[in-house]
Amino acid sequence: MNFFPVVDPAERSATECYDLVLELGELADELGYEHVQTVEHYFSPYGGYCPDPVTLLTALAARTRRVRIVTGAVIPAFTHPVKLAGKLAMLDHLSHGRLDVGFGRGFLPTEFAAFQVPMEESRARFAEGVEACRRLWTEEDVVFEGRFHRFGPVTLLPRPYQRPHPPVFVASATSADSCAAAGTAGHHLQVVPSVTSAEQLRGMLAAYRAAWTRAGHAPGGHRIQIKYTVYLAERHAEAVEWAERWERGYVAHMARAVAPLAGGAGADYPGYEKFAEKAAGYDFATALKADKVLAGDPDAVREQIARIRDAFGTDIDLSLQFSPGALSRDRAVTAMRLFAREVMPAFGRAGDTAVS
Fold first, then answer.
1. Radius of gyration of the chain (CA)
2. Residue 9: which domain range?
3. Which PANTHER family match (predicted)?
């Protein structure tokens, strides 16, 4: 289950948002969902209610017992690696080893400007931050001499609960090269189909799987999370109506957040200047037909997931958002229960797509 708070404060307060996340997280644990995850964003209704995913996930860890706790993702460019590695190691202990760590580069110019970090350094800062965390988790008396950070010798306390460290995921929006780098390094992958074409996403996944194999990592040992919003109800037309309303709201908030990209974001972000153009040209019916959003009654959503498996492979996990925008609490709870009862069993067999 994925929590991405794209919501205007006029529609739902931060307190209401967090209370709902905690309630739905407990329900995910009860119903057998595989993980709960959240994002790192700042300032705007586009994810801005979650500037620190570790804080929210710590509260979720305290209220759950089985479901995995996932950052989706933290941004190393905005936090010193000693602080980030320590916070994540603490969460690994508080969750008794249920943590998966997703790292991302970030892509919103307003965030980079606020942290006074040049966007053209994002790729290098990302790679350095991930490597620094890995070393801090696994080594003693670490002396780190990076381009952006220099420290040591230091030995991190606490050491992570999981050894040698929590599973590492890399979040990639559009880059096949980033996916291949993650596969070579033996990291897992997080992707979002709403910002790519199906053809582009297939290419990204193919690059990742090929790099994983070439690097000699264990066959089948990789994990791929693909994130979708799902609108589910007993009545098909009702779910589609909700989907169109809240997806249009999501796109409107995203369009405002990515507007500064229209002028280009440098060599680290090829093609990102088109994000604003894509948002402006959004058509809900087209997105639904292309299975970029899941919406309808259980039969319709099962059919969508079957098509997604055919398109992207049976080794994927679906990370689902049931509470987009200010969708009511009752509708989100009903959708989660309905999915667990009538959709999840069709894909819960060993070797099939996981849902979370």
1. 19
2. 2-229+298-355
3. BLR5498 PROTEIN, LUCIFERASE-LIKE MONOOXYGENASE
Position 267 confidence tier, pLDDT thresholds 50, 70, 90: low
Characterize the bridge pairing of strands 142-145 and 150-154: antiparallel
| CA 192 remoteness from chain centre | 8
Q: Shortest CA distance to 31 belongs to which of 337, 255, 240, 248?
A: 337
The verdict on residue 205 lying in a domain is: yes
- The secondary structure of residue 77, as a DSSP letter, is G
3-state SS class at 103: strand
Q: What is the pLDDT of residue 349?
A: 47
pLDDT digits (tens, 9 = 90+) for 147-169: 999 999 999 999 999 999 999 99
CATH number at 199 reads: 3.20.20.30
Q: Residue 236 falls within a domain, yes or no?
A: no
In this prediction, residues 253-274 reach a mean pLDDT of: 73
Q: What would the two tokens of residue 38 be?
A: 């959240």
| pTM greater than 0.85 (yes/no) | yes
Helices H, strands E: what count in the chain? 12, 12
Has residue 169 been placed in a domain?
Answer: yes
